[in-house]
Amino acid sequence: MATCGKSTVSGCYTRPPFFGLLATGFRLLRTRTVEADMNRFLEFIQAHPYLLTAVIAVAVAAIVVELRHRKGTSSAVGPLDAVRLINSGALVLDVRSAEAFAGGHIIDARHIAADDLAKEAESLKKKYREKPVIVCCDSGMTSAGAANTLKAQGFSQVVNLRGGLQAWKQENLPLVIDGSDKASDKPSGKSGKGSGKGKNAK
User: pTM for this one?
Assistant: First the structure.
């Protein structure tokens, strides 16, 4: 005789609980559903090989474009980091219009308008291809594209001035006005090369 719980019976038989049976049924149903879906997917692939090839090609192309975009995107530095680069001999390249450049630019900056950069870049390669180049504009948007242009042409240390000259002014760093011997803003501290006295662009 065997004892099951509080009653004595000739044999013990434990019936699976209701929820256990229900879970087992769902697992079987899900397995069959997955197998059916896989079969339908394989049948679809066999029936539409060209469509599958096109989807794969589009996915690969999207990955390649994204990788190229990331590789071609220039890095950016803030005004204070730009000052350190300038002190180390970096070229500052201002890609604004000639009028904006004359109205105030970073000391010793060189002016090449963004529209002319692609053809004028050759003149910079010999001296600055392997040296730091800081590209700037008013907001940092136009100069970001210009920096990418230089990078595509083989310049290895091109950076964009993050925030452009607007950010530069917010740090109280000086700008030089063409035709004047004074900087348009006095720096609150050391800002780079020399004092705030102006030099015309090279």
Answer: 0.56
